[in-house]
Design a protein that fits this description.
This protein has about 170 residues and is α/β, with parallel strands linked by helices. The protein contains five helices and six strands. Helix 1 runs parallel beside helix 2.
């Protein structure tokens, strides 16, 4: 099937991109592999009108609202190959399904690369988080730390005293 726009990634950015396109009656397909960055956290914080809401619920409601537009389609799957030929992007999904689009939006988000630290993976999104602005308030000024993993770590460390005892 041919679309005006194919959006690769169906989390918040992909959904937000799809909404005005659907409202503009563009033929849109959203292709989603179901790997939202915040899937490990139970609740979303700091998101206006959604503070404390289940992160999965926000995405589900947005998807339901978006799919009310008759020009918007959804495909659960992972893009395996993307190529441009002539004036169309040809997208292979899971090696078994193909769609074409005049334009693409890549909204695949961020994937956290966790260092090999014992217990980190099991605690990720429960008691260890990626962002103090998203989850620091719930620490109630308790102990907070940082895993220095990039050139931005020193800058991030300077923000931590606002959130708790470093």
């Amino acid at each position: 099937m041919n679309y005006d726009v194919a959006i690769i990634g169906g989390s918040y950015a992909g959904l937000a991109a799809g909404l005005p396109l659907g409202r503009a009656r563009r033929k849109v397909v959203i292709i989603d592999a179901g790997q939202r960055r915040n899937r490990f956290a139970d609740h979303s914080h700091g998101f206006l009108t959604q503070d404390g809401t289940l992160a999965s619920e926000i995405a589900q409601i947005a998807k339901q609202q978006l799919l009310q537009y008759p020009t918007v389609d959804w495909i659960d799957g992972q893009v395996k190959r993307l190529e441009k030929k002539d004036d169309l992007f040809h997208i292979c999904i899971d090696g078994i399904q193909a769609v074409s689009a005049k334009r693409i939006i890549i909204a695949t988000g961020v994937q956290d690369q966790l260092p090999e630290i014992k217990g980190l993976k099991e605690r990720w999104g429960k008691s260890i988080f990626h962002c103090p602005y998203c989850h620091g308030y719930e620490l109630n000024q308790g102990k907070i730390g940082l895993i220095a993993s990039s050139e931005h770590s020193a800058h991030m460390a300077m923000l931590l005293p606002e959130w708790g005892s470093v």
